[in-house]
Amino acid sequence: KATTSTLSKPSSAEVCAIDPTAIVSDACASYSALDTLNRAVSPYLKSITQSTDFFAYYRLNLFDQQCPVRAWDDETGTCGNIACKVDTLEDEKDIPVIWRAEELSKLEGPKAAHPGRQLQKERGEQRPLQGDLGEDVGESCVVEYDDECDDRDYCVPEDESATAKGDYVSLVDNPERFTGYAGSAVWDAIYKENCFSKESQLSGPTAKAASLNPFQAANDLRTIIQKNAPSNDLELDDECLEKRVFYRIVSGMHASVSTHICFDYLNKTTGKWGPNLECYRDRLATHPERVSNLYFDYAILLRAVTKLRTYLKNYTFCSGDASQNRDTKNKILQLANTAATYPRIFDENTMFQDPDVSGDLKEDFRNRFRNVSRLMDCVGCDKCRLWGKLQTVGYGTALKVLFEYDELKNGENPPLRRTELVALVNTLDRVSSSLTALNKMRDMVAETTIPSISEPDRQEPSAKMKDHSEAKGAIAPDFESDALFDEEEEPNFHSDQTIGEIFRDEWNLVWRTYIYVLKSWISIPPKMFRIIVIELSRLWSFWLGLPIPERSWEFQWRPQKDEL
Ligand SMILES: Cc1cc2nc3c(=O)[nH]c(=O)nc-3n(C[C@H](O)[C@H](O)[C@H](O)COP(=O)(O)OP(=O)(O)OC[C@H]3O[C@@H](n4cnc5c(N)ncnc54)[C@H](O)[C@@H]3O)c2cc1C
User: Fold this and answer.
1) What's the ipTM?
2) What global pTM score does this model have?
3) Minimum CA distance residue for ligand 1 atom 3
4) Which of 16, 434, 456, 524 is 20 to 30 A (C-alpha) from 269?
5) How far apart are CA 357 and CA 353, in angstroms?
6) Do 107 and 168 touch, CB atoms closer than 8 A?
7) What family classification does the UniProt entry report for this protein (predicted)?
C-alpha cells in the first residue's frame, strides 16, 4: 500500500472507497480503476483533441518571453544556460539532418498570429485569422477573445501590448515526443520551486510575492497535514512540506513527458520511431513513485473536467460555426459524463479546509505555479516549450477548478479562458495517453523480462516476444541449454558394439553427468540472486499497489528419467 500523505484523506468511506492493495495515494481510486476509467475515457479525449478545431489549436507566446532565472539571464539577456539550448549530440554530424535534435525540436505546421481587437472586428467573426491555419479550420473556434488573468488564476498574465499576444499553433502537427533536447537543468530549477521554505530563485514581482511569507505557508500546510495524518503514516519534512502535493503534480507531469519520449522515440540507427524499453526501464519502471505521481495527476485532471460538466453545457466553443459548436460540446460532455461514472476519484474538499490558513496556502500554491510557468520559457526546444507551457497552464487550470469552483453553481464561478480549457483537456489527454503507453511498455517488458536482465538487446523485444517460453527459459534452471544428451550422442547400444565401446559410452555418460551436476551447482548462486531480485521487485510493486509483473522464472525437474 502506497500511503505517503493524507492531504486528501477521505472524509468518509462513501467518498473514497479505498482498495488497500492498490489505491493511488492522495486520490480515491485504485490504479486498476483509473486504468479502466482511462480505457473508457481515452477514445473521447482522442476525438476531441485530434478532430475539433477548438481543442486542436493553442495560443501562446512561444518566442518572445524571457527565461526569468537570474543566473541564466544576466549574461546574455536571454536564457544562457546550456540546458536552455537545443542539445547537440556529439555525433550529430554523423546523422541525417532530419534526425538532428535541433530539427526535431522545431515547430511544424502552419502558425497564425493573434489579431488585435480592432483587426478582429475588421475581419469579422468568421475569418479573424484569414486562413493562416489552413482553409478548412473553423477560425471562430480557435481565436480567443478574452485573455485577462485575474487574482484566482494560477497562470502567468500575458503581456498586454498588442504584439505580445502570441501565435496559434497546431497541437496535432506538433506531437509531444522525443526531440533529443536535454532539459535536466530546467527540471532541477522547477523542482527547486517546490521548496516553499526556501527563497524563490526568480526575479521580479512574482518572486517577491512568492517569498513574502514562505514559513507561514509551510506552517499552514503542516497544520493541515498533521490534523489529518494518522500518527505513523506520514514522514514530515520540516524544511519543505508543501512539496507533498506540489511535488507530486510536477513529478507526474515530468513522468508523463518521459513516457512520451520513451514511447515515441527515434532510433537513430534505423530511422524508425517506436517504444524504447531501455528508456522506459531507466526513467519509469525503476521509479514506481514517478508512475504513482502520474496516476495522481490523472485523478486530479479528470476530477477537474468532471467538475466542469454544468459549466460546459452552457459554453460557446465556436461562435461562428453552429455545427462545430454542437459537435465539440457533445464530445466534451460525453467525456465529462463518462469520467463521472466513477463516484469520485479525487476529493479536493479535504484540502485547504482550515479557513484561517487556506488563503495564504492557496496564494503560495498559485505563486509557485506561476513561477513554474515562467521557467518554461527557459526550455530551449520549441516543441518541448509548447507542451511544457500548455501542461503548466493545464495543471494550473485544474487547481483553479478544484479549489475555486463550486460544482453546483454556474454563473457565479469565474470564467475560464479558451487557453485554459484547451490546456486542461489536452493535458488530460497527455496523461491519459501516458497511462496507455505505460501499460503497453509494461506488457512489452513483461514479455522480455528475462532477456532484459541477462542480455543487452532489451530494445528489440519482438523476436523474444514471439516465444514467451523462450524468455522464461532464460532464467529457469536451464538444463536444456546444457543439453546433456543430443540426439546424435544419445547412448545407443547396437548389437554390434564391442564391450570396450559400450564401456567407453557408459564412461562418457557418467563423466558428462558429473560435469553437468558440477555446472548446475556453480550456476545456483547467480540464478538465486536473479530470482531474489525478481521476487523483490514483484513485492515492491505489490507494496506500492502497482500491477504485479508476471513471475518470469519457474522450476523444472530436468532431465526427466526417460531422457537419461
Ligand atoms: C518542460 C520540459 C519539456 C520537455 N519536453 C520534451 C519533449 O517533448 N521531448 C524530449 O525529447 N525532451 C523533452 N524535454 C527534455 C527531457 O524531459 C529530458 O530532460 C531529457 O530527455 C534528458 O533526460 P534525463 O534522463 O537526462 O533526465 P530528466 O528527464 O532531464 O530528469 C532530470 C532529473 O530529474 C529526476 N527525475 C526524472 N524524472 C522524474 C520524475 N518523474 N519525478 C521526479 N524526479 C524525476 C531525475 O533525478 C533525473 O536525473 C523536456 C524538458 C522540459 C524541462
Assistant:
1) 0.99
2) 0.69
3) 384
4) 434
5) 8
6) no
7) Belongs to the EROs family.
